[in-house]
Amino acid sequence: MSNDSSNTNGKSRGIYLLPNxxxxxxxxxxxxxxxxxxxxxxxxxxxxxxxxxxxxxLDGRVARMTNTESDFGAEFDSMADIVSxxxxxxxxxxxxxxxxxxxxxxxxxxxxxxxGALRLARFNTNLGSSDKNFFQGLAIPSAxxxxxxxxxxxxxxxxxxxxxxxxxxVITICAGLLMVTNFRYHSFKDVDWKGKVSxxxxxxxxxxxxxxxxxxxxxxxxxxFLYALSGPVLTIKNVKKLKLGHVVGDDxxxxxxxxxxxxxxxEADKAEKED
Length: 275
Prior knowledge:
Blueprint: H1 2-38, H2 42-65, H3 71-98, H4 103-125, E1 134-136, H5 140-156, H6 165-178, E2 184-186, H7 199-214, H8 216-238, H9 244-247, H10 261-274
Antiparallel strand pairs: 1-2
């Protein structure tokens, strides 16, 4: 009986270990990116950050599939994210293009790290209260992909980092600031991955993979750059009059991240009065 108990406990620990192994792999990828950039291996550093994104996407899904979600896993994931998608992209970009800018360079890198930390803190405290179909502000992995993608493109095409320092600083700062805005970004969590799709959809997916494989650095950077632009466009499109509260702030009534909160509240108040 004790053997059965120990086997059960061993199995339970093994299952709970699985998603955290993916998180650890993502953390290692981010750490490796920092080390690689310190040795001027910028393509390897950028690729490592994208690999960390793959592991970050897998750990949560594995936890849900194996019913092993836990508070520890959620906290560990956030700690890993700030390293892999906050510190790593900022330091990789700093070592590649920002170091020669002096104070402006390290301030740009710090703004990105601070934006990432604030983005994660807001995400963790808003769990269960925001619209699952949209992100409030640019997600930190997407911001990391923009910064890492720019490094990858520059290094692959032989561009000296010092020659694009100003542009790199602007991109890094903008990516950091977009994370703490209220711009709405599609989360794609409403996509039914288990449902049936047409042959055309499969064909499009295959074509996307082929295009990415031909020029991975340029294509990935372009995809995430356009995704970053989609937030302001979507927000402006969905609000009748753009106010400061739609861009920054934490007042849920003014957040563009939520679907017509003001109108919903007015309708609820009206119905209450009628009752």
